[in-house]
Amino acid sequence: MRIGRFQVEIFSDGIFRLDGGAMFGVVPKVLWEKQKPADELNRVPMDMCCLLVRDAGHVVLVETGAGPKLSDRQKRNFGIDEPPRLLGELARRGVRPDEVTLVVNTHLHFDHCGGNTYRDGDRVVATFPRASYAFQRLEWLDATAPNERTRASYLADDFAPLEASGKVELVDDAVEILPGIRLDRIQGHTRGTQTVRVSDGRETLFFSSDFMPDRHHLPLPWIPSQDLYPLDTLAAKKVILPRAIEERWVVAFTHDLPRFGRISEQEGKYRFDEIAE
Questions:
Q1: Domain count of the fold of the chain
Q2: Which helix (H) or strand (E) holds 120?
Q3: Which of 125, 221, 259, 268 gives 20 to 30 Å between its CA and that of 132?
Q4: pLDDT per residue over 205-224, tens digit each?
Q5: Closest Cα partner for 112 from 209, 182, 242?
Q6: Which residues form the domain of 16?
Q7: Do the Cβ atoms of 260 and 205 come closer than 8 Å?
Q8: Residues 15-42: pLDDT tens digits?
Q9: Dihedral sign computed on CA atoms, order 88, 89, 94, 98
Q10: Which CATH number characterizes residue 92's domain?
């Protein structure tokens, strides 16, 4: 897809599975299961979507999936049945790891940043050796000092080795990380979750992060129980969804099918309509 001068593509690193009740919070199962059926363990499947943005001189990768470092037990727990697709998907698009110039993680949970690094013998090294890795400063602080509730989602090998190599770029709140590529901190899922907007001034693409994981989270009260600040998520949805409709943003989600679409509202209900790339 073209967004002005940007070539933008979306693909999946693979499927993982989380408890459906956790994914939909206060929404009863009798409602959410109509939209996303659960397996025998009450888990719902979710893609781990990545965004590739190319412009003259820049190759930007947003999210890196779960990566290759998970143990067999972790993969069983999260229902990950296949090897990570990240590098293969990049290769199919003609991109080598050493050609990526910037990696953006919307936050540092393992399913969004596991592909940042890989094991090379006894060392954990950067997958993209020429790239800077951009995170919100608050996210970095919380990921490097997790508490009893958050530590299961933060795996230090996904991000800590990058600091010693000088590859970490910490940002605060809202920043244009490159011309036309904007990061905005939205407290909700975590303190330091950030969304990504790609714009040429006329068209805008919005990548939601776990602020709104998939199309089934468009209804205002459908908020995952994993969100640390659910009322902040609710407030942000009330601002962002009307703007996305008014300005006709192209929208993509982190845990939906790897598709682009637009949001509309009919009789007070939001819907997502896919569009061709």
A1: 1
A2: strand 117-120
A3: 259
A4: 999 999 999 999 999 999 99
A5: 209
A6: 2-275
A7: yes
A8: 999 999 999 999 999 999 999 999 999 9
A9: negative
A10: 3.60.15.10
